[in-house]
Amino acid sequence: MMDYKGCKCASCHKVLKEGDDIVICPECGAPYHRECYVTEGRCVFSAKHGKGFEYVPPEAKPDVNANGPVCPVCHAQNPPDTLFCERCGQPMRGGVPPQAAQSSPQYAEPGMGGTGMPGGFGGPGAQYATGDVMTQLHLAKEYDGISTQDWMKYIGNSAPYYLYQFQRMDESGRKTSFCWSALFIPEFYFFYRKMWGWGALALAVSLIVSIPSLLSLMAALGIATALPLSASALSTLITVCGLLNWGVRIASCLFGFYLFRQSAARRMRAMKDSSTDDDRYRTELERRGGPSRVAVVLVGVLLVVCSFAFSAWIGPDRLMSAFYLY
Question: Which residue from 19, 197, 267, 274 has the least number of CB within 10 angstroms?
């Protein structure tokens, strides 16, 4: 029987010790604390079962987690120098290695505008020590046939967090994750990450679902509309559009990382096919990769212009009435 002491539980990632109640997945052989396995309700590698997958334990190592930080979200204990929780991906602020902090002040800032919100907008571009990132986050050498180094050049400042999400997708066999920026402002997120088609779709949905509310406002101000809708029908339409809006936001949140991964992989392959050598290809990755703040500004300006145009159309007197109504 294989000795799993010194290996990590496949669920909580704590090192299995002598005396722990250990259970083994009968399909792939992955080890768990019994309590962790019962909590999960299944093997975390279940998506790979039946495909020839067999759990191969890493070389036994000492329990480096003994004095490591505890994740504030899922409460899993992590290695002392980890950048993100190994179970849920929450940034671990206290886990940045000194050498990484010196070379990249925003190494653990994969959030929106440096606020710490994971998965969305990031601050200025930063340089990464690729070897440190791969070691700290336990990343693979490539994703979708593209090397991790090339992914980091293309993604930019938030590369460690995005690659960590890719790794979790591959390990679990799922396409879903949580991209909070895509939940609250999906149109801005998609345009920021240069996903033009998805950004246009999210923006169109955002504008369309606001139409019933505008019609309701116009009716309250006494402005005739071409749509003969009763108050109850308009109220129902507003509710349906609200549900549709949140449905799009939730879908964007769950599939934001996956959609970015697919879109980015297609663009990177196209760049590689059109490049004559590796140096030119990597130059193109840096030039055409990264986020687009200009696109975010343009979308914001468009929405402001639409708002001002509507205000000018209804007139200042009716605009003041609208303020009193709402």
Answer: 19
State pLDDT tens for residues 266-313.
999 999 999 888 889 989 998 999 999 999 999 999 999 988 887 787
Residue 313 shares a structural domain with residue 227: yes
Whether residue 217 is found in the same domain as residue 82:
no
Please check whether residues 166 and 186 belong to one and the same domain. Answer: no
Model confidence, pTM: 0.61
pLDDT digits (tens, 9 = 90+) for 236-259: 999 999 999 999 999 999 999 999
Tell me the C-alpha distance between 180 and 115, whole Å.
Answer: 12
Whole-angstrom distance between the N-terminal and C-terminal Cα of the chain?
70
114: which 2 tokens?
């440096």
C-alpha Rg value of the chain to the nearest Å: 24
CA distances (Å), 316 to each of 45, 166, 242, 280, 301, in order?
A: 61, 51, 28, 56, 21
- One domain for residues 101 and 168: yes
- Considering the domain architecture, whether residues 101 and 119 belong to the same structural domain is answered as yes
Q: Which residues of 270-305 are buried (b: 16+ CB within 10 A; e: fewer)?
A: ebbeeeeeeeebbebbeeebbbeeebbeebeeeeee
> In this structure, are 309 and 231 located in the same domain?
yes
**Which domain range does residue 97 map to?**
72-172
Last residue of a domain, one of 119, 140, 172: 172
Task: For residues 313 and 316, give the distance between their C-alpha atoms in angstroms, rounded to a whole number.
Answer: 9
Rounded-to-integer distance, Cα 5 and Cα 149, Å: 33
Q: Which helix (H) or strand (E) holds 23?
A: strand 22-24
